[in-house]
Design goal:
Number of domains: 1
Protein name: Carboxypeptidase
Number of helices: 16
Oligomer: single chain
Radius of gyration: 22 Å
EC number: 3.4.16.-
Structural class: alpha/beta
Keywords: Carboxypeptidase, Glycoprotein, Hydrolase, Protease, Secreted, Signal
Number of strands: 19
CATH class: Alpha Beta
CATH topology: Rossmann fold
Strand content: 15-25%
Subcellular location: Secreted
Family: Belongs to the peptidase S10 family.
Shape: globular
Distance between the termini: 41 Å
Length: 492
């Protein structure tokens, strides 16, 4: 196996074997972080793991933070952002990473970094992985490796994990969890299934896999889609008249309208939401100055109103997969295919873009320069245009994993309309497990922070009050609270 790091733009290759490695590779250690003036509270490592591509190699970039609490005992947690095709540095920069980012002292200067008191690395050894190949700082010398899908992504990430644990064998005995949000509702269970299969087949190194957690993740077309209209009515975004018309004509089939009257009523409901920040209905919608695009719900894809659909396949949830409405033409278009610079509707990604496209930052974190890996963007166009959805409902994956004893925490920011909690609550309930912890509030900082329902077989559904799609971004303290208690197997 070969691990690559970049120093002064030069690729350093080091061939390692399991017997030769006794600890984290020295060349992966980060000695300074541009924009941060202080001492890191724990070791940070980063670099590339090369796995087999077709043809050539796929170079997957990771950033690993050693736990600030008890590295030898604390779990190792892999974090994956969604998309598909979005960088896990979104979680690193904006959600639960080690730093909080602030504007630089002048235009064009690097963001200022300060320690994040609610970083998940306070209690876990955390891996942020840019996956699949072509996302974020991950790259291949052959662009044919950017053509991928659900199953290939799971296989590649599993291959990464086997290589990573050979590089960091001191963490093999730690409990291992897989986590993510949004389209990681597909990434996580498909990867977990690959890991479990490998364990059963005796693959080495042996991964001490214990379970997974998913935030506002997609799972099933029908459940996720049918939860939308009840959610927007419950949040006072549509009138009772509109809701009752939808109920009367759709008979609960909001995701797959059974007739034209139902279709027209759902379009009327969606029209009321134009311009809303779909990721958090309480937050303003950030708009880039050169963009006249307006955020629209995903359901329009299923209603046949797109002239140039961004995706014709189902289940394209998460960052950048929204359909946009032109204010001038009032038609849905594909902004991704029309613009080189891609921005998520309503989301400001300026800090991450400025920091990760600075060559001094890339050198410090052992990432390839832009001339090799390409510019960093929050959601990679080169992957999104070549991604195939080749899995169905995730419910069978969840049933299999949970029935085999793996722990699962399914959490939802309750003000997210991208993957609303109504659908998630419905599919977790549909699994049919016995309720062992009746619906109740949970507390953070002496306040009600949300609600949960616990099932047997170690399944928990949990909401976070007032949070949007990216839960730790909106509620960092509450997120660290439930994360810590769940990892420590304590009541939330």
């Amino acid at each position: 196996m070969t691990v690559f790091s970049f120093t002064s733009g030069v690729i350093l290759g080091l061939v390692l074997t399991v017997l030769a490695v006794g600890a984290a590779p020295d060349e992966s250690l980060i000695t300074h972080v541009p924009g941060f003036d202080g001492t890191l509270p724990s070791n940070h490592h980063a670099g590339y793991v090369a796995i087999e591509g077709n043809p050539g190699k796929k170079n997957l970039f990771y950033y690993f933070i050693v736990s600030e609490r008890n590295p030898s005992k604390d779990p190792v947690v892999l974090w994956l952002n969604g998309g598909p095709g979005c960088s896990s540095f979104d979680g690193f920069v904006y959600e639960h990473g080690p730093f909080n980012f602030q504007a630089g002292e002048s235009n064009g200067s690097l963001p200022i970094l300060q320690l994040n008191p609610f970083s998940w690395s306070k209690v876990s050894n955390t891996i942020y992985l840019d996956s699949p190949c072509g996302v974020g700082l991950s790259y291949s010398e052959d662009p044919r490796n950017y053509v991928t899908g659900d199953l290939q992504t799971a296989s590649d990430t599993h291959a990464f994990l086997l290589e990573w644990f050979e590089l960091y064998p001191e963490f093999l005995s730690n409990p291992f969890y897989i986590s993510g949000e949004s389209y990681a509702g597909v990434y996580v269970p498909t990867l977990a299934s690959k890991v479990v299969k490998g364990i059963k087949q005796g693959e080495k190194p042996h991964i001490n896999f214990k379970g997974y957690l998913i935030g506002n993740g997609i799972a099933d077309d029908e459940y996720d889609g049918n939860g939308y209209v009840p959610f927007i009515f419950g949040m006072a975004l549509i009138s009772m008249d509109i809701f009752e018309d939808c109920q009367a004509t759709c008979k609960g089939k909001f995701y797959d309208p059974p007739n034209d009257r139902c279709r027209k009523n759902i379009l009327k409901a969606y029209a009321a939401l134009t311009g809303l920040n779909m990721y958090d209905i309480l937050e303003p919608c950030y708009r880039y100055p050169d963009s006249k695009a307006m955020s629209l719900p995903f359901g329009l894809r299923q209603l046949g109103v797109t002239e140039k659909p961004l995706y014709t396949r189902k289940r394209m949830f998460g960052y950048g997969s929204q359909l946009w409405l032109s204010e001038q033409e009032n038609t849905v278009t594909s902004s991704l295919q029309q613009a080189k610079a891609f921005h998520i509707p309503c989301i400001n990604d300026d800090f991450a873009t400025a920091w990760l496209n600075d060559e001094a930052v890339r050198e410090a974190i052992h990432a390839a320069p832009a001339s090799v890996a390409g510019p960093w963007e929050i959601c990679a166009t080169r992957v999104r245009l070549n991604y195939t959805i080749d899995t169905g409902s995730m419910i069978p994956y969840h049933k299999s994993l949970i029935s085999e004893g793996y722990r699962a925490l399914i959490f939802s920011g309750d003000h997210d309309s991208v993957v609303p909690y109504t659908g998630t609550q419905a599919w977790t309930r549909s699994l049919g497990y016995k309720i062992v912890d009746e619906w109740r509030s949970w507390i953070s900082n002496e306040q009600v922070a949300g609600y949960l329902q616990g099932y047997d077989h170690n399944l928990t559904f949990l909401t976070i009050k007032g949070a949007g799609h990216m839960v730790p971004q909106y509620k960092p303290q509450e997120s660290l609270d439930f994360y810590t208690r769940w990892l420590d197997e304590k009541p939330i």
